[in-house]
Specification:
Blueprint (H helix, E strand, L loop, with lengths): L1 E9 L3 E8 L4 E8 L4 H16 L4 E10 L2 H8 L3 E2 L2 H10 L7 E5 L4 E7 L2 E7 L8 H11 L6 H5 L13 H13 L4 H18 L11 E4 L6 H11 L3 E2 L7 H12 L15 E7 L8 E7 L2 E6 L13
Parallel strand pairs: 1-4, 4-5, 6-9, 9-10
Antiparallel strand pairs: 1-2, 2-3, 6-7, 7-8, 11-12, 12-13
Helix pairs in contact: 3-9, 7-8
């Protein structure tokens, strides 16, 4: 059987999964919306990966999980590797662009910058609570303009005179957008202006104080937008590299880390047939009043999270 590794990136907007072999080749991948239910999203990703590889005679030797819900999902499916998004994205990107020095990542709700030197993460930063300048922001503006988000970038690159759009705040950006539309500006110029605003917002906030050096790799869902790529290239005066697998870098990176781990944990796709559930309650056994989260598999408790002292576990592990 072909020995392989599974990587899952569980985000607030989307969940990604890949299966790689020992040479880091992606045998199959899956990208779908999380829809507010990370456990169900992971099940759907795993089922899709199983469907795509059922004739390839593979054996999953390890599974890695990253993303905002990594701890919950990692414990749920028994992952042998759980790491943060910065590490996973860096490893995944380095496997394709070994010389990369700057990673620009803009996803559905999160943005980040990763600075590397000789393949080592030296610095990083993430966006604040505001979602201005992310994929969700672009999607909402596309809907407001009556444009399919898939066509957003193609329309933007046709502009010969992008308008200036204030995008440091979602509320102000929407107000400015309405004003520009009512003033008679061409739709392609407004869309190009939004793309420029995304790049400027990122550079002035997420990348503030960071020294951006080439080679630069742009990834995340927004990297598919030609208008935003063009805006970054014009502003930075550098070539921006975008890989067609850029949206999978977190999943690829954590799969590689799982492979490189000394911990081998054979994985069965049958886990998707099991029932997983989380229940929460407030522990009143001490003044901490911890919010305890219990994870159940087929009605049996498999883990407890959130406790700051042993009293929160007493009733579960007597």
């Amino acid at each position: 059987m072909r020995e392989c590794y599974l990587g899952i990136d569980v985000g607030s907007i989307s969940t990604k999964g890949v299966i790689i072999d020992k040479s880091n080749e992606i045998l199959s991948s899956c990208y779908l919306w999380t829809e507010g239910n990370p456990m169900d999203a992971v099940k759907r990703v795993i089922n899709e990966l199983r469907r795509k590889t059922e004739e390839k005679n593979i054996l999953i030797l390890g599974i890695g999980v990253t993303g905002s819900a990594r701890k919950l999902i990692g414990r749920m499916i028994g992952a042998n590797m759980v790491r943060n998004e910065i590490t996973a994205h860096a490893v995944g990107t380095l496997s394709i662009f070994p010389e990369v020095r700057t990673i620009i990542e803009i996803g559905g709700q999160d943005s980040k910058i990763i600075i590397l030197e000789d393949g080592i993460v030296m610095d990083y930063a993430m966006n604040t609570l505001c979602a201005a300048g992310t994929g969700a922001f672009l999607s909402s503006q596309a809907k407001r303009l009556g444009v399919d988000i898939e066509d957003f970038g193609d329309i933007a690159v046709k502009s010969g005179n992008p308008v200036k759009v204030a995008a440091r705040c979602t509320v102000f950006a929407e107000s400015d957008l309405v004003h520009k539309a009512q003033s008679g500006y061409k739709k392609e110029d407004i869309i190009a202006g939004l793309c420029n605003a995304i790049a400027n917002n990122y550079l002035n906030n997420v990348a503030r104080g960071k020294k951006i050096k080439a080679p630069i790799v742009f990834q995340g869902g927004v990297s598919k937008n030609k208008g935003v790529v063009k805006a970054f290239e014009r502003t930075l005066n550098e070539k921006i590299h975008v890989d067609e697998r850029g949206h999978l870098m977190g999943a690829l990176g954590i799969a590689i880390l799982s492979k490189e781990s000394d911990l081998s944990e054979p994985f069965s796709f049958q886990i998707t047939d099991m029932k997983f559930e989380t229940k929460g309650y407030e522990c009143m056994n001490c003044p901490n009043n911890c919010e305890i989260v219990c994870i159940y598999k087929n009605e049996d408790i498999i883990d407890v999270m959130g406790n700051k002292c042993e009293r929160g576990l007493e009733q579960f592990y007597k």
